């Protein structure tokens, strides 16, 4: 400490002697040399700071900058378990492999998450150049959680899934959510949101449907743009107090035949026409217009459309120069960061392509190098970089990049282009000047009462009332109610008397969800995703519960829709039908009693049968036979009927 103070004092004297201005307030000697470097000077233009730092970096440090790794937890290199980061493993990634961008999957209390992220920054600051860590996350503010794609918990305010915002269609509500989420993320030391999904949802069986803004290209574009604006805290790019967004998945991801997802070998292809491809591209326009800090290419191989008269090369978007350098950077003039989706450079072994009960796919066998399966890792990295990738998600070994440079497959000049983008974003986020957060403040900010009250209001408003036969809603409190899939405590709090037998009730309330199948139980993601059928059937336990209730009393059914449900089998048994996209029991009960008003409209159409689903085109929005309910359907109760 004494030596450090002596160095600082000596530096101040030298600056004074040579007529240099005093050191800026809060100056951090990141490279530990006792003098103010250009990249450490908060007063200097960002471009100058970037070039100064780039000039001090070795090739190995540059290669590490092109990786976006995972903050490991004890016993899990992909951070899926534990309550703390693995300190030794994290230090090795920072120091030995020169990685400075990470996804966090830690789910702990806000104060603890802030403390853990501060510890990462402390280790980063001790490195040779003191380059701060950029910490990213998958979505954390919604009801749906899918391992490897989203999470929930950890004290963050709880909002509807993205389809709920699409049901409201109100850009201001999305901006307000983004602004609150921005404050919560920055409070715990998260700087990058690996969201929103601007994917156009055109295949109703697709498991990623729920995280989209629906099936209308113009609405998706408008709402995804508002999301970016709210998170980044402005319309002209990310601000120092903002959260960088990575809009995804460029482009055509929502058009996969049979809805099979691109995380899986069996879902690695999408088929589109020139016409439908233009609509999928259109869905990204507003996100790009407000300068989303990042774009993530899709996993899938796009078949069918042409770009500038040329067929698209049959490789995934992360390896596709036509989609990234040609269409995104060229035609769309995008200048931000392009971050690959996770594991595109990893091998896809037998347990990845065709796992079975004896040899299921585990995290160790996850790889998504679609179209490049036969190539080695060096070739994949070189192909991705030449296509336009700046960072590789889920990668933590820079050796293949160094090998690609050594073999002349990539130039160091090309590496520098991507490093500049990564460093520029860190400067724009203010991380070089102060990457630390107030841990006590995190506990006050994250999930605070005011934020959750706003989230609760959106949970209620985003519900869609599809049917209300014989003015079943609202139901006055005090009635006897039979419940299925609803917490009795919430119903009692809403003023109902809960009974065990529907024959004793005045009304019944059943909560259910879009049906699904597990068609690929041995694939890591396939085992966790909702695939296959969308229709309710007589043998389903939920349908049997609806039948039991409707035999005695008026029955209200609330359907949670992560994908468009086919309601044909249950409609004759329901008196009122509500659609939810992430709502608590209390929120549903408030709509039932009229304390809150369902204001949503369907952000996609609902088919009549699985035959109709199979007859539609996977790449076109709402294009099948006449639907049971069209996009935009929804009933708003008249003021006289409500209990506002």
TrEMBL record:
Domain Glycoside hydrolase family 3 C-terminal per the UniProt entry, residue ranges: 498-635
Molecular function as annotated in GO: beta-glucosidase activity
Annotated ranges, domain Glycoside hydrolase family 3 N-terminal: 85-425
Keywords associated with the record: Glycosidase, Hydrolase, Signal
Major enzyme class: hydrolase
Reaction equation(s) it catalyzes: Hydrolysis of terminal, non-reducing beta-D-glucosyl residues with release of beta-D-glucose
GO BP of this protein: glucan catabolic process
Signal peptide coordinates: 1-22
InterPro entries with a match to the protein in the record: Cellulose_Degrad_GH3, GH, Glyco_hydro_3_C, Glyco_hydro_3_C_sf, Glyco_hydro_3_N, Glyco_hydro_3_N_sf
Gene3D superfamilies, alphabetized: Glycoside hydrolase family 3 C-terminal domain, Glycoside hydrolase, family 3, N-terminal domain
Residue ranges, annotated region (Disordered): 610-644
EC number: 3.2.1.21
Family assignment from sequence similarity: Belongs to the glycosyl hydrolase 3 family.
UniProt name for this protein: beta-glucosidase
